[in-house]
Design a protein that fits this description.
This protein is mainly alpha-helical. It has five helices and two strands, in the order αααβαβα. It is about 30% helix and about 5% strand. Helix 1 runs parallel beside helix 3.
């Protein structure tokens, strides 16, 4: 009978994901690995239940916007993920793996409907919540608020992302199935 590993209990998943990614990158560098790799980091931020570490919550306490506790939690939760991603990018740079990297950042769906946890209602229409505004709908619905998400592709490598493509915006349709051939091609597959 195996015994569950409880050593990570009460640890934020963003910290676990960050630490595992940093360890992986440092091990690759230490071992002189040069082959392309795919590192998928499924951060749970900002899925419910909405929580954040106190230090991130407090970052939005003395703002000129007078955020509600729910907003402080949500914005802290986002900042927590941003901080973790920053550590991972810093590790890519410090281990000399950054220059040949392609970083794809995307959400999986629009924000959830307004809830008791974080009610970001905008106006009187329940189909419009502030986190998806100006798009109608939310996660689980086919309207743009449910399926249209922000994201970006970044690479310092000019062969991968030429200067002419930097800063470009694409507002058309795209589907995750487009990523496999694109990323596999970049890796030489």
């Amino acid at each position: 009978i195996s015994v569950p590993d409880t050593t990570a209990n009460n640890t934020n998943s963003a910290d676990l994901i960050r630490d595992a990614a940093v360890s992986f990158l440092e091990d690759r560098a230490k071992n002189g690995a040069t082959r392309p790799f795919f590192l998928y980091l499924p951060f749970q931020n900002i899925h419910g239940p909405y929580t954040t570490q106190q230090k991130y919550f407090d970052m939005y306490d003395n703002s000129s916007h007078a955020f509600s506790p729910g907003e402080q939690t949500m914005f802290g939760y986002l900042t927590e993920m941003d901080d973790a991603v920053g550590h991972i990018v810093a590790t890519l740079k410090s281990t000399a793996q950054y220059e040949n990297s392609v970083i794809v950042f995307s959400s999986d769906n629009g924000a959830p409907p307004a809830s008791a946890d974080v009610n970001h209602q905008r106006g009187s229409n329940p189909g419009w919540i502030a986190r998806n505004y100006p798009f109608r709908g939310h996660k689980g619905l086919i309207w743009e608020g449910g399926v249209r998400v922000a994201g970006f592709v970044h690479s310092p490598n000019a062969a991968v992302l030429p200067a002419s493509a930097r800063g470009a915006r694409y507002n058309g349709l795209m589907h995750l199935t487009d990523w496999l051939p694109t990323l596999a091609g970049l890796a030489g597959a």
